[in-house]
Design brief:
Blueprint lengths: L5 H34 L2 E2 L7 E2 L3 H8 L1 H5 L4 H22 L6 H13 L2 H11 L6 H8 L16 H26 L3 H9 L4 H12 L1 H16 L3 H7 L10 H10 L4 H26 L5
Antiparallel strand pairs: 1-2
């Protein structure tokens, strides 16, 4: 090593440090993705040998209307995600100012994000309980007993109830991202705008929004992906019930693989979901960047 030139030593060190992360990336990201695509063209029950099925899994998937109907359940998560971003941006702007005790409020709002998802699910399971849940008990105590509901047992409410859990948990993370973006905007611009007579709304519209536009795009993309990939809360709390009302595309994919032992069809469902995510990402980029260079 000492006899090598500086340039050669530098390249050896660079590739040596890159070897482990690249190897891990290939083994745990690219290879599983490639194998997923390959498995989607096969019939496999998880035990016997794989058999080539061609496009049969995709034909079966496209002919099953119920599989894609569950995507309508994900709309509740999308609505919750949009409200989550609005709330996160509001609190970020509020806590970016000179509010007294703002650091304490930042910690309190971020705290749900660091909580374990399973613990969060069971906490809300207790809160949503029809007889002894804190939400219904509170509504009854303040005279709003007409709002008492079976939050996880009503087909019309279950998806919104589950989406609220995700909104509560991830709002703090979005707030921190927005807060970091807001703090990167030079204060001189706001001072100049104030001197020119701009009010708070005009400063927000013409300075804040354009400055954090890319961050908003990122958070909206993550929100849409999260809505499409909703899994843990319906899986833990409702198992897709009542009557399949809270089943999502991912929970249906998991059930297809592990309950019905049809790994080939489940793989094709995963590929279709991946394509939907890519389509959403492309569409969002086109819509949000319309009129931009």
């Amino acid at each position: 090593m000492l006899n090598l030139s500086y340039r050669t030593q530098r390249m050896v060190l660079i590739w040596a440090f890159l070897f482990i992360p690249i190897t891990l990336l290939l083994l745990f990201s690219y290879y599983p993705t490639f194998d997923l695509f390959r498995l989607s063209f096969m019939e496999w029950d998880g035990l016997s040998s794989r058999e080539w099925a061609g496009l049969d899994n995709y034909k079966r998937l496209m002919s099953d209307k119920e599989t894609f109907q569950v995507l309508t359940h994900n709309l509740a998560y999308l609505l919750g995600g949009i409200l989550q971003n609005i709330a996160a941006l509001f609190f970020a702007i509020l806590l970016n100012g000179s509010l007294k005790g703002r650091n304490i409020f930042r910690v309190l709002l971020f705290l749900p994000f660091i909580m374990n998802s399973v613990a969060t699910a069971y906490m809300f399971d207790f809160m949503y309980d029809y007889k002894n849940g804190s939400i219904n008990l509170f509504l009854d105590a303040v005279g709003l007993d007409f709002l008492v509901s079976r939050w996880l047992g009503d087909e019309n409410l279950v998806n919104f109830s589950l989406a609220f859990i995700g909104m509560w948990k991830f709002m703090g993370m979005n707030m921190i991202i927005y807060l970091g973006a807001l703090q990167s905007v030079p204060s001189d611009i706001y001072e100049a705008a104030k001197i020119d007579g701009a009010n708070s709304f005009q400063s927000f519209r013409y300075i804040t929004m354009p400055s954090i536009r890319k961050v908003i795009e990122l958070n909206l993309f993550l929100t849409m992906v999260g809505a499409l990939e909703a899994f843990e809360y319906p899986f833990i709390l409702t198992k897709g019930g009542p009557g399949g009302a809270s089943e999502t595309f991912v929970t249906k994919t998991v059930n297809t693989a592990f309950n019905f032992n049809n790994y080939g069809l489940a793989a094709s469902m995963s590929v279709v979901l991946l394509l939907i995510v890519l389509l959403v990402m492309y569409s969002q980029s086109k819509v949000l960047n319309r009129g931009q260079d």
